[in-house]
Amino acid sequence: MKKVISTTNAPGAIGPYSQAIEVNGTLYISGQVPVDPATGKVVEGGVKEQTEQVMKNIAAILEEAGYSFADVVKSTCLLSDMSNFAIMNEVYGSYYKENPPARAAFAVKELPLSVMVEIETIAVK
Q1: Which CATH code fits 3-124?
Q2: Dist. CA 98–CA 101, nearest whole Å
Q3: Does residue 14 register a pLDDT over 90?
């Protein structure tokens, strides 16, 4: 059975999608951008600060659904510029010190709200 996951500790959906969907022990988290849920605005700073906020948003959704970063099996990282990869990778890696998930990373032409990074996540219990 499909269950919609939603928390006020992560940015609300700004379109026809859910923050996350859980089905059969698998959690699919929509791409998270670096919006601070307390202000509704993109965090100030560069890709380091933006990636940190994205990971905080993912953490909030994982927690709401009863998962943790240890349950994450796949991430897709979207970057506005591949020259930001090393910095994003450093922040991202700090959340996966052991047994990191599978991952893909792409540079794309543009991201919502003109952010530098967006990450979608899949976790399994």
Answers
A1: 3.30.1330.40
A2: 9
A3: no
